[in-house]
Amino acid sequence: MNYNLVLLPGDGIGPEIVAQAKRVLEAVATRFGHDFQFSSHLIGGIAIDETGDPLPPATIEACKSASAILLGAVGGPKWDDPSAKTRPEAGLLKIRKELGLFANLRPIKMFDELAGASPLRPEIIKGTDILFFRELTGGIYFGESGRSGTGDDETAYQSMTYSVGEVKRIVRMAAKAAQGRSNRLTSVDKANVLEPSRLWRQTAAEVMKQEFPDVQYDVVLVDSMAMHLINRPADFDVVVTGNMFGDILTDEASMLPGSLGMLPSASVGSDGPGLYEPIHGSAPDIAGKGIANPLATILAAAMMLRHSLSLNEEADAIEAAVAGVISDGLRTADLARGGDSIGTEAMGDAVVAKLA
Ligand code: NAD
Ligand code: IPM
Ligand code: MN
C-alpha cells in the first residue's frame, strides 16, 4: 500500500529523533512491502526563523492531506523571549486545533528490564499499565487570555472553559478504550475549586451512567492523583482528564517506566489524519549531542501505524523490536543512570537491525 507520511521534525532534538523513527519506518516498509512516501515540513522555532510563522500555511496543507503525521518537538531558549510576537509552541497548539485532534492518548507501559531505570522501587511500579486520555483542544490552553494595566497593577489572565460536548466526546473515547482493557476508568479533575471541573465531573458521570454502566468508574482530584500515581500506579487502567492536568500528570508518569524519552503519544480526532509524537519536548540541554533517546518517537511511529494506517502487525513488530533492544541491555544516557550508554543513532541502528 501507498501512504503519504508527513514528518514535522521541529526544533532541538526533534530532527535527531525523527530521523531515527524514519529509518525504522523504512525498515518496516521493506520488510512488509509498503510504500511510505515521506515529506518534511516546517513547524515551531525553525519555521519562525524561516518564515516568521510557527505553522506556515504549507505545513497545514501538507498535514491535511497526509495519511498521518509524525512530529518531533518544538521550542527552545532561542524563542523564549516573553515579549516575542509568537512562539514555537503556538504552532503545535494550532495544528492540534486545525486538525480537530481533541484526544491525546498517552500510554504508560513498563519494560520489565527497565525497572532499574525508574527512580521508584520495582515493587511499586510492577504491573503498571495506564492509558491516559488527555483532552487536547480545549481547557485553559485555548481560553481567552490577555493583559491589562501597568506597573504593579499589570495583570494577565487566561480563562479555562469546557463545554458539555467537549467533555462527552473525550469521556466516550476513553470509556470505549477501557472496555477493551480492564474495564476501569478514572476521571481526574479539580471539581472542589474550578467551575469547568464541576461541569466536567457532572457530564462525565452522566455519560458513564447512561452509556457505560458496565465500566468501573471513579473520580480523583488532580492533586491527589499526582500522589497516587507515585504511590500505587498499578491500580489505574484508563485515565481521562483535561488538557493541562493531562500534560502535567503524564510527564510525572514518565518516571514510572524510567524516562521521558520512552513515552509516545497519539493525537486523534473524530476523522482525518492523526498526529503522533513523543510526549517530551525539544530537550535543549542535550540537543545536537547525539545522545537523545529516540525510542519515544519510534514508539509513536508504531502508534501511527496502528491507529491511522491499521497496520497492526507492523506496529507490533516495531514494539517488539524496541522491547528486544531493551532486553539486550542497550540504553541511551537517560535510561543508563550513569551506566554504559549508546547514542541516538546507535539506538536507531539497533531497532532497525531487529526489524530486518
Ligand atoms: P523537555 O521534555 O524538552 O526536557 C525535559 C528533560 O528531559 C531535559 O533534561 C531533557 O534533556 C530530557 N529529555 C527529554 N526528552 C528526552 C529524550 N528523548 N532523551 C533523553 N532525554 C530527554 O522539557 P523542557 O526542557 O521543559 O522544554 C524544552 C522545550 O521543549 C520548551 O521550549 C518546551 O516548550 C518544549 N516542549 C515541546 C513539546 C512538544 O513539542 N510536544 C513538549 C514539551 C516541551
Ligand atoms: C506537550 C507539550 C506541549 C503541551 C507544549 C509544547 C505546547 O508540553 O505536548 O506535552 O503543553 O501540550
Ligand atoms: Mn508536555
Short description:
The protein is α/β, with parallel strands linked by helices. It has 2 domains: about 1-110 and about 260-355, Isopropylmalate Dehydrogenase; about 120-255, 3-Layer(aba) Sandwich (Isopropylmalate Dehydrogenase).
Structure description:
This protein is of the alpha/beta class and 356 residues long. The chain folds into 2 domains: 1-111 and 261-356, Isopropylmalate Dehydrogenase; 119-256, Isopropylmalate Dehydrogenase (3-Layer(aba) Sandwich). It is 42% helix and 19% strand. It is built from 13 helices and 12 strands. It has helices at 14-32, 45-51, 57-64, 88-98, 122-125, 164-179, 195-211, 222-231, 243-253, 295-307, 312-327, 333-336, 344-355, and strands spanning 2-10, 35-40, 68-73, 103-109, 129-135, 145-148, 155-158, 184-189, 216-221, 238-241, 264-268, 275-278. It has a 10-stranded mixed sheet with strand order 2-1-3-12-11-4-5-10-8-9, with helices on both faces. The protein has a two-stranded antiparallel ribbon with strand order 6-7. Strand 11 and strand 12 form a beta hairpin. Helix 8 (222-231) runs parallel beside helix 9 (243-253). The longest helix has 19 residues, at 14-32. It is globular, with a radius of gyration of 20 Å. 47% of the residues are buried. The model has no long low-confidence stretch (mean pLDDT 97). The structure holds nicotinamide-adenine-dinucleotide, 3-isopropylmalic acid and manganese (II) ion. This is 3-isopropylmalate dehydrogenase. It is found in: Cytoplasm. Its cofactor is Mn(2+); Mg(2+). It comes from Neorhodopirellula pilleata. It is an enzyme of class 1 (oxidoreductase).
